[in-house]
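Lab notebook, bench 4. Still working through the backlog of constructs that have no structural model yet. Next entry is a single chain of 396 residues. Request: give me the structure tokens for it.
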Amino acid sequence: SSIQINTSASICAGDSFFAGGDWQSVPGVYTDTFVSASGCDSIVQTTLIILQGSVTNISPTICEGETYFAGGALQTTAGVYFDTIPLPGGCDSIVITTLTVNDTAVTNLSFDICNGDSIFAEGSWRKNPGTYFDNLTTTSGCDSTVITSLTVRPQAIYNYVKRICEGDSALIEGTWYVSPVTIFDTLEGAAANGCDSIVVHELIVVSGNAFNLQVDPPSPTTIDSGQSVQLHVYANTPQPAFQWNPSNTLSCDNCWNPIATPVRDQTYSVTVTDSSACSQDSADVEIRVRLFEPDNPDDCFHSIYVPNAFTPNGDGVNDIFYVYGNGIDSLYFIVANRWGEVMFESHDVNAGWDGYYRGELQMPGVYVYYIKVLFCDGTRLKYSHPYRKGSVTLIR
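Model written out:
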């Protein structure tokens, strides 16, 4: 008779077992028939059991720069990783890890503000130019870095200073002021860069300095025709300014000691202003000129004077180069440049050179002059006389 043997076998999913005459990998009952030595059949029935190992799927998320252990190592990049873990029953547990790596957000911001304004950056209100960093957390739980570049545009500031004398007034922004004051005015967005313009008006009130004048020589002073006299004015104030009038017979009109050569009686007035231009005083000096009598040859007084510079700038002061003198009956007067070219020639005692030649004002420099003079007593200017010939400087 035949012999039947019933048996069972367990394998893990994915493995195989030889039964039913072949390698089996699915559960079931498999029969194998063998012939014994006695000629009887031996039947083996195998019940095959497939043990299922566990498969676990996980999907972790990390932030850029962090690590996660999967696939047998620390991972920093996104991907699918497999880990096999042996179980006590002999089958493996498979862990499938789908790793997501979230980027760290970096946001660059640029702000352009006006001086005096501010923005919130790096945890505080900022008004100075620079780069500021803020670390925040995104909805995914990762860090978010905000980099703020701050530029500060300057405000335009205009300063206006006005000085007035004590007792005067000044109009500023529609209001008259008599006392020192500083006024600030803001013109919104008026600057070229779009920021506010600040206008600063400063009013300074200057007190004048009281001073006394003294004029020398005493008034009146008499000189002979053709003579000169030096005038002096004294003012006990620092850095005064002088103005003499009339100025046509003075060597200078803005100095303290001009030389006067009047041709007739003349009263000179001088005005002195202190350094603040807030105090003035004036004084007069009378110079009387004693003239000779033409019909009396014994009273023929004659003199001559030639300046050494003139300024033909059209200001009415020392514009023409004249020969000055008394008792001159006739005059021959020429002016030449340094190359000998004649710039001016005249026989008129009242004529002078205005600095022009052929319609053009000549260049500044030194020019030479020659004169011949016949005086009222019949004498002539000696060849050795210092004013017989000389030089004059044209100043512009």
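Notes after review: The radius of gyration is 59 Å. The chain has no helices and 38 strands. Flag for follow-up if needed.
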